[in-house]
Design goal:
Helix content: over 70%
Shape: elongated
Order of helices and strands: HHHHHHHH
Radius of gyration: 16 Å
Strand content: under 5%
Largest sheet: none
Oligomer: single chain
């Protein structure tokens, strides 16, 4: 049942029906509060709606439940940047990169955050690595 609900939620999201998708992700979580794809999907919807506190909580829960879920750690990092917490964001990106060292999105966000913190040499070195991995 939750697999079918998840597919319905993902389809609603892809069709731009975010309120329906959020409700369906919530339904999945009602049957399984530890359902990582539903937590992540709902987190993305909250992030896109600029509800960064709620998004950060959801992405944090995916990290707690599965420390190897690099996408959750990366999106938590992006959310933490939006919340004005760049040091925490760097730590989240580091966790994502520990799991997937060539994770372009995490690496480029880590580099950008370093640049925003004035750590130019480190940030530029990481951007060079991004370009080597994905020209």
């Amino acid at each position: 049942m939750s697999d079918e609900l998840l597919q319905d939620a993902q389809r609603a999201y892809q069709e731009g029906r975010h309120a329906d998708a959020a409700r369906l992700f919530q339904d999945v979580l009602g049957t399984n509060p530890a359902h990582i794809p539903a937590l992540y999907g709902l987190g993305v919807i909250h992030f896109q709606g600029s509800q960064f506190g709620q998004a950060e909580n959801l992405f944090g829960e995916t990290e707690r439940l599965d420390p190897l879920f690099a996408d959750g750690a990366c999106m938590r990092g992006v959310t933490l940047v939006r919340l004005g917490r760049p040091d925490d964001a760097l730590a989240a990106f580091d966790r994502a990169l520990a799991v997937r060292p060539d994770f372009i999105e995490a690496l480029s966000n880590h580099a950008t955050t370093l640049l925003e913190l004035g750590r130019y040499r480190e940030g530029l070195e990481e951007l060079d690595r991004v370009l080597l991995l994905d020209p």
